[in-house]
Specification:
Layout: H1 2-31, H2 41-45, E1 52-58, E2 63-66, E3 78-81, E4 84-90, E5 98-105, H3 107-176, H4 182-206, E6 216-219, H5 220-237, E7 241-246, E8 250-253, H6 255-271, E9 278-284, E10 287-291, H7 322-332, E11 336-341, E12 347-352
Parallel strand pairs: 7-9
Antiparallel strand pairs: 1-2, 1-5, 3-4, 4-5, 6-8, 9-10, 10-12, 11-12
Helix pairs in contact: 3-4, 4-5, 4-6, 5-6, 6-7
């Protein structure tokens, strides 16, 4: 504001000075001409600086000529309005045909526009400078954290790779121990199956998500039944019964992706079921229903269950990555997914497979 006031005063001084010069020139003209003098446009234009616009009014306040297209305050010697400055010469000649000469200057508007541009470019320069500095500082300070995360990822990847051999060996050995206590063997096999399922989740989450996998025509009924049979030992260890009602359906997708989706949802249904509960797996009208009679999910938690590492029941374990993987695969294939309460208790996962059905 202070700088603007100084600029307005400078423009005011300059415009008032020019109005005095114009008056002096007109007086010189009138002094050489006896009687009433008619001042023409060409005469006025000789005295007007090129950076001004002018309006000339006759004795009846009608414009003789002019370039100012707005109402003028004729009662003031100088004023500014809408970033423009005006200077008024009132009755410069007693015996002439002119009552007012109005000068207009856009110098204030141009100066303010230049000032705004200068401020904008200055702020933009500061912003770009700060962004560049911030980028390099973030890389500098976050490098140890990034390296640590990469180190942890490599450790997990190496660890899960090393786990595969003993898990496979345990499962194969269990199948050969027919003469041992059947209950102990079932518990051992259920634990190994659970460990194998956790291993598959970890290895899948560590795979490159940008890697394009081949898509095959899959018999969905056979695949689902195969996974139910595989997980049945885990269900029996918790005294959970799995019921399947599956219609024949073929889909086009990567077999491993669909297997991971089925395994994760059924495993969760078993995990969160109570003893002597039932998990129902049904395929009809292109939709897969996996419903349990377990502890259920509170409605306010449903929107967050697909977030990675999010767990709402620590008593029943889990890594918090299974449903995150399921969500990413469903989005990849445009498989619609709903989570609803299963009346009277438990949870229902409903997958709309229309997008991949062939």
């Amino acid at each position: 504001k202070h700088n603007t006031s100084i600029l307005i005063n400078q423009i005011k001084f300059e415009m008032l000075y020019n109005t005095r010069l114009i008056e002096e020139e007109l007086i010189k003209i009138i002094s050489k001409t006896p009687g009433e003098v008619t001042i023409k446009k060409e005469t006025i234009n000789r005295f007007i600086p090129i950076n001004y616009k002018v309006e000339v009014l006759d004795n009846n306040l009608n414009p003789i000529f002019g370039e100012i297209k707005k109402p003028i305050k004729l009662d003031k010697e100088f004023y500014n309005f809408d970033e423009q400055c005006f200077s008024i010469i009132k009755k410069p000649l007693k015996n002439g045909n002119i009552s007012y000469i109005i000068l207009k200057s856009d110098a204030l508007k141009k100066h303010l526009q230049q000032l705004k541009l200068k401020i904008f470019y200055t702020l933009a320069g500061i912003f770009i400078f700060m962004a560049v500095i911030g980028y390099f500082l973030s890389k500098l300070f976050l490098r140890p954290i990034r390296e640590k995360i990469e180190e942890i990822d490599r450790f997990i990847e190496d660890t899960t790779h090393e786990l595969n051999t003993p898990i496979t060996a345990i499962l194969m050995t269990i199948d050969t121990l027919k003469c041992e206590d059947s209950k102990k063997l079932k518990r051992l096999k259920a634990s190994a199956t659970k460990l194998s399922s956790m291993y598959e989740r970890l290895t899948y989450s560590l795979k490159d998500s940008n890697f394009e996998k081949s898509e095959d025509i899959i018999n969905l009924k056979e695949l689902i039944q195969n996974r139910i049979d595989y997980l049945k030992i885990l269900a029996e260890s918790k005294k959970v019964n799995i019921i399947s009602l599956l219609e024949d359906k073929k889909v086009k997708a990567n077999r491993e992706d669909i297997k991971v989706v089925i395994d994760n949802i059924i495993t969760n249904a078993i995990k969160y079921s109570n003893s002597n509960g039932v998990v129902k797996v049904e395929m009809k009208d292109n939709r897969l229903f996996i419903c349990d009679e377990g502890i259920g999910i509170k409605e306010e938690y449903i929107k967050d269950i697909f977030k990675r590492y999010k767990r709402f029941n620590k008593e029943r374990g889990g890594l918090g990555i299974g449903l995150s993987i399921v969500d990413s695969i469903c989005k990849k294939y445009n498989i619609g997914m709903e989570v609803k309460p299963n009346s009277p208790k438990g949870t229902c996962f409903i997958l709309d497979c229309s997008a991949i059905v062939v």
